[in-house]
Design brief:
The complex is a heterodimer of chains A (475) and B (483).
Chain A (H helix, E strand, L loop, with lengths): L2 E12 L24 H4 L10 H13 L7 E2 L2 E4 L9 E4 L9 E7 L2 E14 L3 E7 L2 E5 L6 E7 L6 H17 L12 E11 L9 E6 L2 H20 L7 E6 L4 E7 L9 E2 L6 E2 L2 H9 L5 H10 L5 H9 L1 H13 L3 H19 L10 H12 L5 H14 L3 H7 L8 H14 L1 H8 L6 H11 L6 H11 L2
Parallel strand pairs in A: 11-12
Antiparallel strand pairs in A: 1-9, 1-10, 2-15, 3-4, 3-14, 5-6, 6-9, 7-8, 10-11, 12-13
Helix pairs in contact in A: 2-5, 3-4, 6-7, 7-8, 7-9, 8-9, 8-10, 10-11, 13-15, 13-16, 15-16
Chain B lengths: L7 H9 L5 H14 L6 E4 L1 H13 L10 E5 L26 H8 L3 E6 L33 H8 L5 E6 L5 H7 L2 E4 L19 E6 L2 H11 L29 E5 L9 H16 L3 E5 L7 H16 L18 H12 L2 H14 L5 H21 L5 E5 L15 H5 L6 H6 L3 E9 L2 E9 L4 H14 L5 E2 L2 E2 L2
Parallel strand pairs in B: 2-3, 2-4, 7-8, 7-9
Antiparallel strand pairs in B: 1-3, 4-6, 5-6, 5-10, 9-11, 10-11, 12-13
Helix pairs in contact in B: 2-3, 7-15, 9-11, 9-12
The chains are: A alpha+beta (475), B alpha/beta (483).
Chain lengths: 475, 483
């Protein structure tokens, strides 16, 4: 029997507003516990929430970028449940009238392009944190995160496998970082997701019973949790059993999912419209202002790089896929003419260094200015590509200026052909054995001569000139 | 000269003419509180702070609208550094770190908050029998309830301890005790007064308001209590008029509506007689009575007892023993902490309403109860909209009768819920309404209700003031008539 996997994702994106969704307290990460908390966040008796319009604007940016319906009138509901880090005993969320309606996003997975439909995206407040390891036998509550605005993005159940799920998550991350509505830092919990997995027979019209895996915060774990879940559910179904509707937790240490609570144990959240909050109305003017301020998105960038800057498709895709990479590319291109060389170096050497250090380009010491100078020095033949690579490594470590490094280390390329020729002649004369062997058919020895010239010039010789001169001498 | 039973206007005069110092006025107030201790009208006193403020006013005279006037604050408004219990064991030691907007407004107008008044627990009750701090007595007779939930405030004003007090009104909690205690109380249009710092019972119905001896004093207090507050998104961004402006205008030609569906034949004869007399008096002042129909009004009480408990069940979730308020001793786990803290902290009536509210919001019942109730609420609102196309104000009795004995309602909560029959509709529709003393039956006072159109507090105050300018029911006190 072949089983078909059906996956839906609920992604919680922490919006990068300065203050919380319903209070003036800061949303900054990493502060001392309970310092970014005001009366509203504590849920003190008598306090009232006031919606942060900026959170709405950021949600709308997401909606517009995913071709979604924007609900210009949206409202808040209460989701009631008791938990120590939920100060009011209810979470304010958008149940009946979310700010963002149906939309869609394009993903690339398994070598294919696919459109994933988005059901809705709604605003809600985050809860605080329970701290279990600080006090012996007691639990501490940190409310710094309580009230932080989240955009919950709900996909249709039309993701077919783990690779697609990861691609979808990456596509959402890419778009929210391009839109500047979320910093995308997963290690700080800026993006988390709940994954719904179910299995059905290929011909079945109805979906199977799903399990919801809560609160996963890395690409790797999404993939592993889904793989585990598919395996678990398949085994149950194959042996004639049935999957139980439940909430599960992914344990990354044991690489397994575990049951948290079954449907029967699930809370009745008693949703109802929050009587403290009137519906929030977005005017046509506000909507137009947001629309006209939308930045260029990855897909548009990629197209423009190919058609206008004439980049290779593969390079254009890589550069356009990351906001920091695209920024570096565009800024460097303003300062130097050789765009394709900029692209080649970004995708090649710079990316290699980024991967090695596992950082984003804006976290490195490389500035667009310095990078543009480096490209200039390559194209005006001041330094060779090989030297450039070592200069880049130097810049990577120290952040010093490219020209200063070239000057200080005397790395200017030797262009003087007569000088190169005399060096080459001497090497040919000093190595008669190798010359004979080369002439006798050992073509690979050509590299030996080039290497010797390079060694003599500390790598500063223009490699093209060296090639030509040696070819002449060894004819 | 005694300050007992004086109006705010009279107290202002006494202070201006230096017949009494601010300090003496506050001291006399505390003497009155002491001699009326049996009323149990106050939960917490603010003596030291009040005397300090009074002395400060003596040393630095000010021209503020209510400078130096002692006001009693219902114990549902958060007062910075002053215990705020909401009549509950749950908050019996809660000291708020901030003050309600309405408290700040009154204090910046010069009021001295002399103490916090007793009330039904979390404002749930119509007789002040649900307070953790014990029953409040009505000064009109031993063992009589003052009404609720603003019973402490009503009792304090009726006993002449203070000229003015704050109350809140979710289904009649200002008007019903005002009627039973023989004072004047006003619930403004929903949103006129900020709810910031008011401990919520039912957010879509709660509204603060003044309780005083006269309509004029209510207007003086209302002037200072209203404001648009950015901290409360349901607060109205509307111009606040001077509510005293129109008080003396003639009501000649004014159209007063009588609700066809209010069947007065079920009330005591004496109660009906009082109401008929007031009607005749208004006619003598030139007003015209018109019968209006509010077809859905009979659904008000059941609608209210779905909406209010639903909201309360959620609003009271924050009292969980985790962050503030009462926590049980030695909880053995989280569930135990929740269950015992809440079981010990809340009284029976509060628990009853949390249960009703949780039930009507639960999956499978939401559509049948809460959603239906909201639909009916809209119908009731629309009924009023049509009615106010024909009349200026609507008049009815405030209560079914006079103050009853504590404990006399027995164990049937429905009988108590019906106490608010006449007052609930104005809350559901968000309209301003007030209770004005209009008679005495069996040596107990009684009030009539005036309901106004949206934002037309001035008009009901004008109609009330014209009555008080030509009758003396508001001058009757448990100690006899004021000359």
């Amino acid at each position: 029997m072949t089983w078909q996997t059906v996956i839906g994702l609920e992604i919680h994106v922490q919006l990068s507003t300065k203050s919380k969704l319903f209070s003036g307290a800061s949303t900054g990460f990493g502060a001392e516990p309970n310092t970014h908390v005001d009366l509203v966040d504590m849920g003190l008796p008598g306090v009232l929430p006031v919606p942060n319009k900026d959170a709405f604007f950021k949600a709308i940016r997401f909606g517009l970028a995913t071709n979604a319906e924007i609900n210009q009138v949206s409202s808040f509901d209460r989701k009631n449940y008791f938990y120590p880090d939920l100060p009011k005993g209810y979470q304010i969320t958008q149940m009946a009238m979310p700010i963002v309606g149906k939309g869609s996003i394009k993903i690339f997975a398994n070598g294919q392009e696919k459109i994933v439909n988005i059901t809705r995206a709604h605003l809600e407040e985050d809860a605080g944190k329970s701290v279990h390891d600080l006090f012996e036998g007691e639990t501490g509550i940190d409310l710094n995160r309580a009230g932080t605005p989240l955009l919950e993005i709900v996909s249709e159940p039309e993701i077919a496998n783990a690779k697609e799920a990861v691609a979808y998550f990456k596509a959402i991350r890419q778009i929210v970082t391009f839109l500047d509505i979320c910093d995308g830092v997963m290690a700080e919990g800026s993006m988390r997701c709940d994954v719904n997995v179910s299995m059905k027979k290929v011909d079945d019209l109805e979906l199977g019973t799903r399990a919801e895996i809560k609160n996963i915060n890395s690409f790797k774990f999404i993939e592993r949790a889904i793989a585990f879940e598919i395996d678990r559910q398949t085994k149950i179904l194959e042996s004639g059993g049935s999957v139980v509707q439940e909430t599960r937790l992914y344990d990354s240490v044991k690489n397994e999912t575990r049951s948290m609570r079954s449907k029967e144990e699930a809370n009745d959240y008693r949703y109802f419209p929050d009587p403290d909050l009137l519906p929030v109305v977005i005017s046509d003017k506000e909507l137009e202002e947001i629309r006209s301020s939308l930045p260029e998105l990855p897909e548009q960038k990629e197209k423009r790089y190919i058609s206008e800057i004439k980049l290779e498709e593969s390079e254009a895709k890589i550069i356009a896929s990351s906001k920091t990479m695209a920024n570096m590319f565009e800024e460097a291109c303003l300062k130097t003419d050789d765009s394709s060389l900029v692209a080649r170096w970004l995708v090649g050497e710079v990316s290699a260094l980024l991967n090695k250090d596992n950082i984003e380009i804006d976290e490195s010491k490389l500035t667009s200015n310095n990078f543009a100078v480096l490209i200039e020095r390559i194209s005006d033949k001041t330094i060779s590509g090989k030297i450039a690579k070592s200069v880049l490594e130097e810049v990577w470590e120290s952040g010093d200026g490219v020209d200063a490094i070239i000057e200080e280390k005397g790395l200017v390329q030797i262009q003087d052909e007569s000088l190169l020729e005399s060096i080459a002649k001497k090497i040919v004369e000093d190595n008669p054995g190798q010359v004979n062997a080369y002439k006798g058919g050992k073509d690979r020895l050509f590299g030996f001569f080039v290497g010797q010239v390079m060694k003599e010039t500390q790598g500063k010789a223009n490699p093209q000139s060296v090639n030509e001169i040696l070819k002449q001498l060894l004819k | 000269m005694s300050i007992q039973f004086k109006t705010i206007k009279e107290l202002k005069n006494m202070l201006q003419k230096k017949e009494i110092s601010n300090k003496e006025m506050v001291e006399d107030t505390f003497t009155l509180i002491e001699s009326n201790k049996h009323l149990n009208a106050f939960v917490t006193l603010n003596k030291e702070e009040s005397l300090k403020k009074a002395e400060n006013f003596d040393n630095n005279p000010s021209n503020l609208a209510l400078s130096g006037i002692p006001i009693a604050q219902k114990d549902l408004f958060c007062t910075k550094d002053l215990r705020t219990t909401c009549g509950s064991n749950m908050l019996s030691s809660f000291i708020p770190p901030y003050s309600a907007t309405v408290i700040e407004n009154l204090e910046s107008a010069g009021c001295i908050s002399i103490g916090k008044t007793n009330m039904d627990e979390f404002a749930m009750g119509s007789s002040n029998e649900t307070s953790f701090f014990g029953n409040v007595e009505n000064p009109w007779g031993e063992g009589l309830v003052p009404g609720g939930s603003s019973g402490g405030s009503a009792s304090a004003v009726a006993a002449g301890i203070v000229a003015g007090a704050t109350g809140t009104d979710t289904g009649g909690s200002i008007r019903q005790p005002a009627s039973l205690c023989g004072i004047t109380g006003l619930k403004p249009t929903y949103g006129r007064i900020s709810r910031w710092g008011m401990i919520a019972f039912a957010s879509s119905l709660d509204q603060a308001g003044p309780m005083a001896r006269t309509a004029e004093d209510c207007a003086l207090m209302l002037n200072e209590m209203c404001s648009h507050d950015p901290k409360d998104t349901t607060s109205l961004d509307e111009n606040v008029p001077d509510f005293t402006q129109n008080l003396n205008s003639s009501i000649k030609g004014m159209k007063i509506g009588l609700v066809k569906e209010f069947d007065l034949s079920k009330l005591d004869n004496d109660v009906v007689k009082v109401f008929e007399e007031s009607k005749r008096h208004y006619e003598s002042l030139g007003a015209e009575f018109i019968e209006i129909s509010l077809p859905n009004i009979s659904l008000s009480v059941p609608t209210y007892y779905v909406v209010a408990p639903a909201e309360c069940s959620s609003n009271l979730s924050r009292f969980d023993g985790v962050k503030f308020g009462r926590r049980c001793e030695n909880p053995k786990d989280l569930e135990d902490l929740y269950v015992r803290s809440r079981s010990e902290g809340f009284g029976d009536e509060v628990k009853r309403r949390i249960l009703i509210g949780s039930y009507v919001l639960s999956a499978g019942f939401y559509d049948a109860y809460y959603k239906k109730a909201q639909q009916v609420r809209r119908l009731i609102k629309n009924d009023f909209v049509s009615a106010f196309e024909k009349v200026d104000v609507i008049m009815s009795p405030t209560t079914r009768g006079t103050a009853f004995k504590a404990g006399s309602m027995g164990s049937d909560p429905i009988q108590m819920y019906l106490e608010d029959l006449f007052t609930i509709p104005a809350n559901l529709a968000g309209l301003p309404a007030m209770s004005v003393p209009n008679g005495i039956v069996d040596n107990k006072p009684l009030g009539m209700q005036l309901i106004g159109n949206f934002l037309e507090e001035s008009k009901i105050l004008q109609v009330a003031h014209s009555f008080q300018s030509s009758t003396d029911w508001h001058l009757k006190t448990p100690n006899g008539d004021i000359s």
